[in-house]
């Protein structure tokens, strides 16, 4: 199969299983007064899809969902569905402190027409396995396919391969966004739960997880450079290292910011430099300054100068 045929196949799979392919965890454009610019967000969703991405993930951490009011959070999902033109392309984040609240957000996503949801484990405390299983089972009752989000760095709850396999046997999840950074887990997940879809969860391990069998990417940096990111992902999943490896090396100074604490600010800054509507961040986050700002700016300008868009 050629790279082009593989790309077509990947898009067909995404149509059947909407959490597959490049699902961009969208940054949320804010005005200078920190209000949400819904028109800019709608335009951004359309632009991402027009530039090779398969869908969007509103209300993730990159979308600053923790700082949104309930009204803002609900409207972001509605705008994403309308702008995407096909609700299957939209996978809202439904994380919340309580399982009942997460289920309500999943129900809101279903009512808006979304195709799936992305769910963190309980993160108000270090939940044990029974609590994690109950949490995912509760949200799955909303009726949409649930993609688990493993981010033990921030949540302090690790969805290990054996636990993921159990959640899949429970019928609670269809896939996992793997953000632990441990690429070895891909093989154990495939052994313990071969039907569970593995999605790349951190931009800076894209190539490693794509080669290990990932079928999707919940992505950050396509917000600024979607076409180059799409080329990289398609080549990586096709095993086309001649294309993927040099592109990965060129983009990695930016991709690694997705795994840093300041990832929201970094990606929004890159968007601004690339002419996209990034804008400010809401407190307690603050704009990058000093060496961090200089590093992101230099890496973004270098990528743009190399024709990466």
From TrEMBL:
InterPro entries: Aldolase_TIM, DapA-like
Protein's UniProt name: Dihydrodipicolinate synthase family protein
Keywords from the UniProt entry: Lyase
Similarity annotation: Belongs to the DapA family.
């Amino acid at each position: 199969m050629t790279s082009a045929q593989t790309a077509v196949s990947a898009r067909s799979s995404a149509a059947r299983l909407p959490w597959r392919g490049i699902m961009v965890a969208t940054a949320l454009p804010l005005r200078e007064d920190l209000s949400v610019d819904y028109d800019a967000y709608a335009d951004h969703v359309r632009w991402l899809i027009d530039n090779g991405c398969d869908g969007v993930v509103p209300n993730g951490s990159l979308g600053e969902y923790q700082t949104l009011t309930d009204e803002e959070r609900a409207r972001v999902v509605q705008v994403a569905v309308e702008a995407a033109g096909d609700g299957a392309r939209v996978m809202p984040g439904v994380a919340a402190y309580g399982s009942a609240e997460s289920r309500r957000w999943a129900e809101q996503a279903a009512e808006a027409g979304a195709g799936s949801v992305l769910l963190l484990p309980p993160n108000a405390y270090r939940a044990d396995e029974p609590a994690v299983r109950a949490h995912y089972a509760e949200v799955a009752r909303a009726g949409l396919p649930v993609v688990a989000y493993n981010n033990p760095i921030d949540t302090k709850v690790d969805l290990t391969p054996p636990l993921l396999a159990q959640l899949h046997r429970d019928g609670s999840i269809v896939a996992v966004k793997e953000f632990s950074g441990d690429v070895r887990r891909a093989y154990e997940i495939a052994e313990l739960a071969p039907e569970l879809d593995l999605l790349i969860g951190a931009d800076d391990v894209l190539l490693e997880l794509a080669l290990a069998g990932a079928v999707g990417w919940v992505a950050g940096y396509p917000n600024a450079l979607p076409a180059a990111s799409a080329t990289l992902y398609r080549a990586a999943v096709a095993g086309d290292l001649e294309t993927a490896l040099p592109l990965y090396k060129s983009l990695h100074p930016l991709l690694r910011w997705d795994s840093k604490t300041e990832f929201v600010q970094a990606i929004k800054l890159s968007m601004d430099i690339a002419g996209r509507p990034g804008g400010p961040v809401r407190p307690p986050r603050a704009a990058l300054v000093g060496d961090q700002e200089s590093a992101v700016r230099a890496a973004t300008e270098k990528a743009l100068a190399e024709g990466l868009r």
